[in-house]
Specification:
The complex is a heterodimer of chains A (about 230) and B (about 425).
Chain A lengths: L3 E12 L2 E13 L4 E5 L6 H8 L7 E6 L2 E2 L5 H11 E4 L11 H10 L6 H14 L15 H13 L5 E5 L7 H18 L2 E6 L2 H6 L2 E6 L2 E7 L1
Helix pairs in contact in A: 3-4, 3-5, 4-5, 5-6
Chain B lengths: L2 H9 L4 H41 L2 E5 L23 H9 L4 E16 L2 E10 L1 H8 L5 E4 L8 E5 H6 L7 E7 L5 E12 L4 H4 L2 E5 H7 L8 E6 L5 H13 L7 E5 L6 H37 L1 H10 L3 H37 L1 E2 L1 H4 L11 E2 L5 H27 L3 H6 L1
Helix pairs in contact in B: 1-11, 2-9, 2-11, 2-13, 9-13, 11-13
The chains are: A alpha/beta (about 230), B alpha+beta (about 425).
């Protein structure tokens, strides 16, 4: 079994009496180190799929396996631990914690892990900050950064704990094309250097061009799964 | 410091006005609790002291037949010793009891003063002056003159009574009264002092003379209408009562006496104690009302930061860590607000503890039977400040559980969709 496997995953949302199917029996496998893009129009189920893979939500039917272990029977705390140790997230709106500095935002991801001492944490944070080109901005607050810089911090925060999978929901949607290319280059470099698995949801042709695999969704179902 | 307290402290400065309003609300209610509690405790303490000093002692011994007839001030049911052999011997036995510090025999009797066509009712208290001074600093209540001498025809009178009778220290007065054997008599006394206790019942009605003089003129040789016992500490009254029960149980004829502690059920002090407990509950509700502003603020914060909560959950924070984060934020506001509150309340309480609040006019409508002071002094004490601070912090913490739980119950995917 690969790093990630979805088996007949269905997600139905209930809005009062009405049931809305967001995903209808999706099955797929993702191997370690893949750079995968999930594409599709709005409402096709991209974010729902990412939520399932990121253990942020649980399927109504079917099963998600991470390294062979099903997540549907895990409780909220177990899912939190799974996310803490194995998953990194990059969001469209950056979503940095505004009261923390750049350094502290990244440090937080490591402080949640039990087995790190302060010296190791500092080394790791500075290393990743330098890697994303923000070594000089460690003490700045998020509101003192540009959109591109914020997204780099978000990438650094997602990668600092060396997760098995990084999930990115429209990571370039709020960036201009030059910054998008910069950010994308950082992610590609990290994928190559660390062999981190990246899964994106995107509309952005730039991101899709960089992806080694593109999964196309429509109405909650996979209509194409192409590898380059 | 862990990362949660750091984030919680910094979050306080995100919406300064909102935080400030919450802190001010908590500070105000805590300040009001400090002042209200200081006022109630101060007034109750002085009331307890008044009742203990002038009515009940720590324990009061009276004739069982006298109980319930105290208002009539009958002299027919005296305390006259364990075997009707006089209170001198009884006092010797009582003095042997460890818990007993002072024994104060008193005779309280009714009288009247006739001036022209007008008859003014008065109340006479025969006291062992020397022992009363030692036990309750009676002489400290003198406004003018001195205490009466033993076996003399001297009295002191309440200042208001003197004014009502248009008399002054140094003048003479004739008081009419019934003796224990029922004969109607009158005696003349020199007024040697004016008494001002702040208690309407005493200041407006009572004259005081030496006990032996009262015993002689009332035909109550070696008798008293009541015997007050003062122990070392009013909180040890239970053990004093136990020792009294044991002592009185050893005398067959002693069953005719009632042993009444100052805080006996059904007595007015008991009602004050119930009132004190009710006030403690009122303080809690009061701070809860102030906490409503904080709860609203926190609920707004949770709504504003829903997406941020989602990010934290995605990073791997557990629900209870989110709960703790919001609770900490509320606790910090509670600590700051309560601290400012006890400083504000402490200043006001200190001022009223020196100058007092005059309830003179309001007290006029109350019964003269009550030993209530007309000027209330608030209790300024560290205990009150600590109690109010802790009450503020604890109630605010409990109140914050509601918004903190709402934050913790958010599902990560829903929170991120916000």
């Amino acid at each position: 079994m690969g790093l990630l496997k979805l088996e007949e995953v269905e997600k139905i949302y209930r809005q009062g009496e009405i049931e809305v199917s967001a995903l209808g029996g999706v099955s797929l496998e993702v191997e370690q180190g893949e750079f995968t893009s999930v594409a599709g129009p709005s409402g096709s189920g991209k974010t729902t799929l990412l939520n399932m893979v990121g253990c942020l939500d649980q399927p109504t039917n079917g099963e998600v396996y991470l390294e062979g272990e099903g997540i549907s029977k895990l409780d909220k705390d177990q899912l939190a631990l799974l996310r803490r140790e194995n998953l990194g997230f990059i969001f469209q709106g950056y979503n940095l914690i505004p009261v923390l500095t750049v350094y502290e935002n990244i440090e937080l991801a490591l402080k949640l892990l039990a087995d790190r001492n302060n010296k190791d944490i500092k080394e790791q944070v500075m290393k990743i900050l330098t890697a994303v080109g923000l070594g000089e901005m460690a003490d700045r607050k998020p509101n003192e950064l540009s959109g591109g810089q914020k997204q780099r911090v978000a990438i650094a925060r997602a990668l600092v704990k060396e997760p098995k999978i990084v999930l990115a929901d429209e990571p370039t949607a709020n960036l201009d094309s030059k910054t998008s290319i910069d950010v994308l280059e950082v992610m590609v470099e990290m994928n190559q250097k660390l062999e981190t698995t990246f899964i994106f949801s995107t509309h952005d042709p730039l991101v899709m061009e960089s992806a080694k695999r593109i999964i196309k969704l429509k109405d909650g179902e996979i209509i194409a799964d192409e590898r380059s | 410091m862990g990362y949660l307290p750091v984030i919680a402290v910094r979050n306080l400065s995100r919406h300064k006005l909102r935080t400030l309003i919450s802190i001010i609300a908590i500070a105000l209610v805590v300040a009001i609790v400090v002042v209200a509690r200081g006022h109630i405790v101060g007034y109750l303490e002085s009331t307890y002291d008044s009742y203990i000093n002038y009515d009940t002692g720590h324990v009061k011994i009276i004739n069982q037949e006298f109980e319930g007839r105290e208002r009539l001030m009958s002299l027919n049911y005296p305390v006259a010793g364990f075997a009707q052999d006089g209170i001198s011997k009884m006092k010797e036995e009582l003095a042997e009891v460890d818990e007993v510090k002072y024994i104060l025999p008193r005779i309280k009797f009714g009288g009247a003063v006739s001036q022209e066509d007008e008859l003014t009712n008065v109340m006479g208290w025969g006291l062992n002056i020397e022992q009363e001074i030692a036990a309750i600093d009676f002489d400290q209540q003198l406004k003018a003159g001195r205490m009466p001498l033993a076996d003399s025809e001297e009295i002191i009178m309440g200042q208001q009574l003197l004014e009502r009778l248009e008399l002054a220290v140094g003048e003479e007065i004739t008081i009419l009264y019934n003796t224990a054997i029922g004969s109607f008599q009158g005696s003349s006394f020199e007024i040697v002092g004016a008494l001002e206790t702040g208690l309407g019942l005493i200041d407006g009605n009572v004259f005081i003379l030496d006990l032996s003089q009262a015993q002689q003129m009332l035909n109550m040789s070696d008798e008293a209408t009541e015997l007050l016992l003062i122990g070392a500490d009013r909180n040890r009254t239970d053990s004093l009562v136990m020792e009294m029960d044991e002592l009185f149980g050893s005398f067959e004829a002693a069953t005719e006496y009632s042993i009444i502690p100052w805080n006996a059920p059904g007595k007015i002090i008991d009602y004050f104690k119930i009132g004190e407990r009710i006030y403690n509950i009122i303080y809690i509700f009061f701070i809860l009302m102030g906490s409503i502003i904080l709860i609203n603020t926190m609920l707004m914060i949770v709504r504003d930061r829903t997406r941020e909560i989602g990010v934290m959950l995605a990073l791997g924070l557990k629900s209870r860590e989110i709960w703790r984060l919001f609770l900490l934020e509320g606790i910090f506001m509670g600590i700051i607000g309560s601290f400012i509150g006890i400083i504000l309340g402490g200043v006001v309480t200190k001022v009223f503890s020196i100058h007092g609040i005059d309830y003179g006019e309001a007290m006029e409508v109350l019964s003269d039977d009550l030993l209530l002071e007309t000027v209330a002094y608030t209790d300024f004490s560290l205990e009150n400040l600590i109690f109010s601070f802790l009450l503020g912090v604890v109630i605010v913490t409990i109140a914050c559980i509601i918004p903190a739980r709402r934050a913790a119950e958010l599902e990560p995917s829903e929170a991120l969709r916000d």
